[in-house]
From TrEMBL:
SMART domains: HTH_ARAC (SM00342). PANTHER family: HTH-TYPE TRANSCRIPTIONAL REGULATOR NIMR, TRANSCRIPTIONAL REGULATOR-RELATED. This is Helix-turn-helix transcriptional regulator. It comes from Nonomuraea corallina. PROSITE patterns: HTH_ARAC_FAMILY_2.
């Protein structure tokens, strides 16, 4: 982006994002980036192709439009967008969207405005930075996603042969995959975190609020897996279709805000899911489950081929046997 590296640009964007709800002037924003006002404006303008003030106003309008589509009042949306009066907000909104804010929700329009840089507000409180389209698709997507989905379902089937006491037995005391997910000492907790990861990241990619913790009965876990598995696969396939692996969103709910590429998120989920599936398969075997499904994708392919219905053999006269 005009001699400003993407990681440097994101570092400049963080103060802007963090100050959306603060009425800071350009000097104060530059100070948060530890730069002079001149250098902050020059670098941000070079990287964005948009003046910092215009960029911030557009983000605020995009957020206001998104809030309006979710039922926020015009008065509240205008105040959150840093306008001193509803009239001033309405004028600015109409210039940007071609419609009054009071009618935006009914119009079902896109809250994103045209931008010279592909940087937009990303619900509920982040940024989406559009990357350049990749020349080639990620051709392993189908294989990785299908194996993950198949194996998770089979592990749930295997867990169904255990009693509640076995599912809640601490067979791996203190076992932790990711610190912010907590310990996973039991088979039930491992299944829950395997599914929870997809629920959380699907919500983040789709721009929804953090999901609530779900049911942990086997039936509840299966229902959650069916929903989250289908949504996560659909999101991954849509990202692949659009060659959007390098699109970046800044998650403002992190402290401090962090940037993630869509491809990195998909790879993160599949990587740690593979680890969790491996550990869980071993735990199920220890608890006495026989014929635990194979965790290796190569073994899975052989199972899949064996399970695939074979076409009938044709005789010379065209009859099938």
């Amino acid at each position: 982006m005009d001699n400003v590296r993407p990681d440097r640009l994101r570092a400049l964007l963080d103060p802007v994002l963090g100050a959306l709800d603060e009425r800071l002037d350009g000097w104060q924003l530059a100070g948060r980036a530890h730069l002079s006002r001149f250098h902050f404006d020059r670098l941000l303008s070079a990287g964005l192709g948009e003046a910092p003030g215009a960029f911030r106003r557009r983000l605020l309008l995009e957020r206001a439009a998104w809030r309006l589509s979710r039922g926020t009042s015009v008065t509240e949306a205008g105040f959150e967008a840093a306008y001193d009066s509803t009239e001033a907000f309405s004028r600015a909104f109409r210039r940007a969207y071609g419609t009054a804010p009071s009618g935006f929700a009914a119009s079902a329009g896109d809250f994103r405005l045209p931008a010279p840089n592909g940087v937009h507000f990303h619900p509920p409180a982040g940024l989406l930075v559009t990357g350049e389209a990749s020349e080639t698709p990620m051709d392993l997507t189908d294989r990785l996603m299908d194996h993950d989905h198949w194996l998770t379902g089979r592990l749930l089937d295997s867990a169904g042969r255990l009693t509640d006491g076995q599912l809640d037995r601490e067979v791996r005391p203190g076992h932790t995959v990711l610190a912010f997910d907590g310990a996973e000492p039991t088979a039930r907790r491992m299944l829950d975190r395997l599914i929870w990861t997809k629920e959380v990241w699907s919500a983040a990619i789709a721009g929804r609020d953090m999901p609530a913790e779900g049911e942990r009965s086997l039936d509840g876990l299966r229902r959650r897996w069916e929903r989250s598995g289908a949504e996560f696969r659909a999101l991954a396939y849509d990202i692949r279709k659009r060659h959007a692996w390098d699109d970046v969103f800044v998650d403002a709910l992190c402290d401090p805000p962090q940037s993630f590429t869509l491809g990195g998120v998909i790879a993160h989920v599949l990587t740690f899911a593979a680890h969790r599936r491996q550990v869980l398969a071993g735990v199920l075997s220890e608890l006495g489950v026989e014929d635990v499904p194979p965790t290796c994708p190569m073994e899975w392919e052989r199972v899949r081929l064996a399970e695939r219905p074979h076409p009938p053999t044709r005789l010379r006269g065209g009859e099938a046997r």
